[in-house]
Specification:
The chain is mainly α. It has one helix spanning 11-95, and strands at residues 3-4, 7-8.
């Protein structure tokens, strides 16, 4: 600190004050960015949970479709068998 003939030189204090103000502004920006990041994180977590629910529902629907396809194939096989049996019966009646 320099003492001049007119009193105390306040220039170092002014620079320090400016540095403190700059740091306060930086901290405020960091807090705002942190709050925004936390909000985005929460929103993304909720979206991930919703997507996981949709995925689980889609997987359940896919399993159900596979079961229905298997049942359809079984029904087709049975119908084909019955048609073959009916055709055999019809042929047997025609031969009489």
């Amino acid at each position: 600190m320099v003492i001049t003939g007119r009193g105390l030189d306040l220039e170092p204090f002014d620079r320090l004050e400016e540095k403190v103000r700059t740091l306060v502004g930086y901290v405020e920006r960091l807090r705002a960015e942190h709050a925004e990041a936390a909000a985005v994180s929460t929103r993304l977590r909720l979206e991930v949970e919703a997507l996981q629910t949709l995925l689980a529902e889609a997987l359940d629907a896919d399993r159900e479709v596979q079961v229905l396809r298997q049942e359809r194939d079984q029904v087709r096989a049975r119908v084909s068998e019955m048609l073959d049996q009916l055709e055999a019966v019809e042929l047997a009646e025609l031969r009489r």
